[in-house]
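Task: sequence design from structure.
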């Protein structure tokens, strides 16, 4: 126990033995719900997860085996039966924890189609507009935000299109795994000395380059989703606009933060505040769902 201590800063109550942390003491006292200070309150399996604080681009992925994760990963607990490989997730077993369940079953193809949509530029754009931005320019997917995300009803989509989306998700995953072998570049930002970087996806470096190289696959996914939703959109322009939003979010964290500091546009141009361009009215993404 002497070697197991919390790593958060002392100003936030860190540096204590793990069993003396606030959350651990609360678990120790609440024996009705927990076995002891070390108990995390139970386990509910799910095949869908996402990085909680993504730096460049949200990442939703498929889990094919029951496992326990930690706070930097968001888990999506479905209220329908799901078959992934030989694993059957039956929410009926956890109804007392997750509430009402639906008499619906999704197979692995349908789950992959959902994940293809969640990784698409359509959803990325929505998250850039609605997600919480941290002080370091990280995009945090909070529970209240995730609950409002527009989602595809794969049961209402032609099976052939669902299979195409699932195939594109497999292609995206395979290529991303291959590209993650990229070597760090010389101008990668340094890691957080206090350990916060372990809870967030690093912004820039090989991860940013990976997403840049994955653009052709993302655009194929976007094109298929636009076809499914009957949306007339230039997927190339959609990517560029969303990428620019991400860059502004990241660069906004690098600007000088002091009273009287110039707006970011002035810091970049040196010619004073840039006027907002006039344009037509925009249409909310949710109007297509």
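Answer:
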């Amino acid at each position: 126990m002497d070697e197991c201590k919390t790593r958060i800063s002392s100003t936030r109550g860190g540096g204590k033995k793990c069993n003396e942390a606030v959350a651990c003491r609360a678990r120790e006292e609440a024996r009705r719900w927990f076995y002891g200070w070390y108990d995390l309150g139970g386990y509910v399996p799910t095949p869908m997860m996402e990085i909680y604080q993504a730096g460049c681009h949200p990442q939703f992925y498929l889990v094919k085996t029951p496992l326990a994760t930690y706070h930097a990963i968001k888990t999506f607990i479905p209220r329908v039966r799901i078959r992934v490989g030989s694993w059957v997730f039956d929410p009926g077993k956890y109804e007392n924890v997750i509430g009402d369940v639906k008499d619906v079953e999704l197979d692995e193809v349908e789950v992959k189609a959902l994940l293809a949509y969640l990784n698409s530029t359509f959803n990325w754009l929505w998250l850039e507009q609605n997600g919480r931005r941290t002080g370091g320019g990280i995009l945090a997917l909070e529970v209240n935000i995730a609950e409002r995300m527009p989602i595809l009803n794969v049961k209402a989509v032609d099976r052939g299109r669902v299979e195409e989306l699932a195939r594109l998700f497999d292609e995206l995953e395979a290529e991303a795994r291959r590209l993650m072998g990229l070597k760090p570049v010389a101008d990668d930002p340094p890691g957080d000395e206090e350990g916060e970087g372990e809870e967030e996806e690093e912004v820039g470096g090989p991860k940013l380059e990976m997403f840049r190289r994955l653009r052709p696959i993302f655009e194929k996914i976007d094109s298929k989703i636009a076809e499914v939703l009957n949306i007339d959109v230039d997927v190339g322009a959609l990517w560029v606009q969303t990428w620019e939003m991400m860059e502004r979010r990241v660069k906004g964290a690098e600007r000088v933060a002091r009273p009287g500091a110039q707006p970011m546009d002035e810091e970049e141009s040196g010619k004073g505040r840039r006027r907002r361009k006039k344009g037509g009215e925009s249409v909310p993404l949710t109007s297509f769902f």
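Residues 190 and 281 are 41 Å apart (CA to CA).
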